Amino acid sequence: MIHVRNAWHVAAWSSDIAAEKPSAISILGEPVVIWRSASGTIQALEDRCVHRLAPLSLGRCEGESLRCMYHGLLFGPDGVVQEIPGQELIPARARVRSYPVADRHDWIWVWMGDPALADEALIPPAVGISEPEWILGHGQLDYAAEARLICDNLLDFSHLTYVHAQSFGAGPEFAEHQPKITPLERGVRVSRWIPAPANSPRNPHDVAVEAYQTYDFLVPGVLLMWSGNYPEGTAARLGDLAPEMADALSGLNFTSQAVTSTGPGTARYFFSWGPHCRDGDDAKRDMMMVMAGQAFAEDKTMIEAQQRVIAATPDPQIMPTAHDRAVTLYNRLVERLARDNPAELESAA
């Protein structure tokens, strides 16, 4: 499976990385240990001691460094061994890989490619769960499926009509109408107007509304989506232009989601969702998260079943439909960006 290594991958929720407590995480099949040092700095190293390959995630934090608790080697945040108990000479090869790491938008991000190319300006502009303008719930799910299958699912919302008929109550418009697809430098944008059904409840302004929904799907698998309700006729008035978020009458909400490959056939899915503070409260957020829990479980059931069928099918082939345009554009982008790292393409062959 091809992945973009020169990108920021979500490793964990920031709140899950406690002070001076190493955490073991797998990203793209590589074992990584992440810890918050005594100064509060986030560090990330290969989770494999250079001596006898014991996991450093079972180690002990000492200042800015991490000590392997098998035979006591002390590793600096750059991965270089600083001390070997009972031995003065430290070999030049006594080091493990260190990873660029960042704490932003309430996620811990790890750069899995060339450290010299790690640019924090490339971190996707997610909305963190601590952002005061939004009231967001959050969670995560582990999948027994390739990350790409989850990304494909998020890039094609025509499945909402069928997979989520019971949870989101999605109507036929997702399957019957095409969204607007816009290529981005490191992803794609998917936007659509959704007419309100005739029997929908009135909004607080007591006017007929239509919904606008848009999301950016960015490498290596990050979805940033907002939606809101606008006076009926807004879509016709704006034509091809997007509405201003601030002009939404009601229903303004945001979701940040991230798909991280943890290894061959496995992935971790991070998500947050909730209303804008002007449009909801904790009770509304909790209601939305119950709905999300049901919907994301529906996705998981379908995608893991899909993975099992693919695994049992010799030379599996797909037949694209009109709804696969965003999927195709995004996967072509992934393949193009991955060419910057030939080793990744070789490992995927």
Describe the fold and architecture.
It contains 7 helices and 17 strands. The strands form 4 sheets. A 7-stranded antiparallel β-sheet has the order 11-17-16-15-14-13-12, with helices on one face. The N and C termini lie close together (8 Å). The model is unreliable at 345-349 (pLDDT under 50). The chain has 349 residues and is an alpha+beta fold. The protein has helices at residues 147-155, 160-163, 173-176, 234-238, 282-311, 325-338, 342-348, and strands at residues 8-13, 23-27, 30-36, 42-46, 60-62, 65-67, 74-75, 81-83, 101-104, 107-111, 137-143, 180-184, 187-195, 209-218, 222-231, 250-263, 266-275. 21% of the residues lie in helices and 31% in strands.
What attributes characterize this protein structure?
single chain; 349 residues; alpha+beta; 7-stranded antiparallel β-sheet; 4-stranded antiparallel β-sheet; 7 helices; 17 strands; disordered C terminus
Give the structure's gist in a few sentences.
The chain has seven helices and 17 strands. By secondary structure, the protein is an alpha+beta fold. The strands form four sheets. A seven-stranded antiparallel β-sheet has the order 11-17-16-15-14-13-12, covered by helices on one side. Strands 5-6-7-8 form a four-stranded antiparallel β-sheet, with no helix packed on it.
